[in-house]
Amino acid sequence: MSEQQNFDVVVIGGGPAGYHAAIRAAQLGLKTACIDAALGKDGKPALGGTCLRVGCIPSKALLDSSRQFWNMGHIFDQHGISFEKPAIDVKKMVARKDGIVKQFTGGIASLFKANKVAAFYGFGQLQPGNVVKVTQHDGSVVELKGTNVIIAAGSDSIELPFAKFDGECIVDNVGGLDFEAVPERLGVIGAGVIGLELGSVWNRLGAKVTILEALPGFLSAADAEVGKVSAREFKKQGLDIKLGAKVSKAEVKGKGKKKEVELTYTDAAGEQTLVVDKLLVAVGRRAATKGLLAEGTGVRVNERGQIEVDEHCHTGVDGVWAVGDCVRGPMLAHKGFEEGIAVAELIAGLPGHVNFDTIPWVIYTEPEIAWVGKTEEQLKAEGVPYKAGSFPFAAVGRAVAMAEPAGFVKVIAHAETDRVLGMHLVGANVSELVHEGVLTMEFSGSADDLARICHAHPSLSEAVHDAAMAVHKRAIHKAN
């Protein structure tokens, strides 16, 4: 073991939360190290965490590729564009995705060099006294002593005991990004973000996709109207989403190219079976804290495997912090970004804060789904008086001109103060439009404030403008 190295800040994990924390700490003049264990497809270290390597970025690459292919067969004819026999080269599509991932993982490595962040590649384990033991990929061990240690270990896919990942027939999000060909039949367990996004990718490319969701409602975390409209659009696209379907068994049968997975599930009609060629298990993620903490660190882990922290992401152990997917709160890359930066600034003596009430949620299906703040259902349950205004994209000139009129925007405001409490959207590019709601809420703005902001015409953002106007029944382009 080499001599112990000393740093002001040692970050465990080079994903969204970790690399933001490391770079911000270095910007603030703190001597910083960041440890990451991940390897890319080429066997070389690859910074960026699940999000960049096998999550947010690669899935968006495939979503965009599959959307282009889908549009060729379903939308282009409306524009007067025609051609013969569109085809998809899956290997080329996946290679493009891999190229984008490599570009961005390399980009983070370059940012580390530019900001003088010392990168260590291997598995980091926190020891007592703010020492991190790093077992590097070549088997050597180094010890890093941090005045402050920020744990940003991320999360792993949850594996079902009756559907173990084999990397071939039964896969998690990693395998779901790397099929060599379009499966004829794809089964998905879980109608959450991962299940819907990757299910959409392969559905657009020609797979018969069946999604089995154990809960009786669709997108229960979202506004009820959002869930209803989204489900209708997905059904039009051919996604078969079965609700209240509890899977109890997944058995791989056959050999070679004839392998298939037989699923057993129970719904309102009783026990059912489904046979598919590939099975994607997307039932959620858990904090990646196994083996992370040596005995005696004093850092506490709850029953879900999450590191316990206060509102400032401090663990209660002097100089030890935790951020991102391995702590409470939504497992979202941008939530991790903000926590990592906030902790770095707190360490440097600056104010650092994350407003959980204004964290946006996005599902990058077609149409996209996005929201921020409270739903109508939540406000009713809490007894909060509110007013809501909505506006359909079918009445927005830009959306119709794009041949993407599905969906709507809803603005919810307090009935007495008019302060915006939530915004809920389904439609084209709503992953961008939701930030009008985020910004308005962050500045404690009202629906009237949003309604009085001039929005360009023609633009998709006019739906936000008219929805805000509809809160007070003064929308121009719909009957109030």
Question: What's a quick, concise take on this entry?
Answer:
InterPro entries: Class-I_Pyr_Nuc-Dis_Oxidored, FAD/NAD-bd_sf, FAD/NAD-binding_dom, FAD/NAD-linked_Rdtase_dimer_sf, Lipoamide_DH, Pyr_nuc-diS_OxRdtase, Pyr_nucl-diS_OxRdtase_dimer, Pyr_OxRdtase_I_AS. Its main location: cytoplasm. The protein is of the alpha/beta class.
Q: Describe the biggest sheet? A: 5 strands, mixed, barrel
CATH topology of the largest domain: FAD/NAD(P)-binding domain
Question: What share of residues is helical?
Answer: 25-40%
Number of helices: 13
The first-to-last residue Cα distance is: 73 Å
GO biological process, one term: 2-oxoglutarate metabolic process
Main location: cytoplasm
Family: Belongs to the class-I pyridine nucleotide-disulfide oxidoreductase family.
Domain Pyridine nucleotide-disulphide oxidoreductase dimerisation: 359-467
Keywords:
cytoplasm, 5-stranded mixed beta barrel, flavin adenine dinucleotide binding, 5-stranded parallel beta sheet, FAD/NAD(P)-binding domain, Enolase-like, domain 1, alpha/beta, 480 residues
Architecture overview:
Its cofactor is FAD. Residues 7-340 form the FAD/NAD(P)-binding domain. It is a single chain. With 480 residues, this protein is of the alpha/beta class. The chain folds into three domains: 5-157 and 286-354, 3-Layer(bba) Sandwich (FAD/NAD(P)-binding domain); 170-283, FAD/NAD(P)-binding domain; 359-470, Enolase-like, domain 1 (2-Layer Sandwich), CATH 3.30.390.30. It contains 13 helices and 21 strands. Helix 3 (56-74) packs antiparallel against helix 4. The longest helix is centred in the N-terminal third of the chain and has 25 residues, at 90-114. The chain is globular, with a radius of gyration of 24 Å. The model has no long low-confidence stretch (mean pLDDT 97).
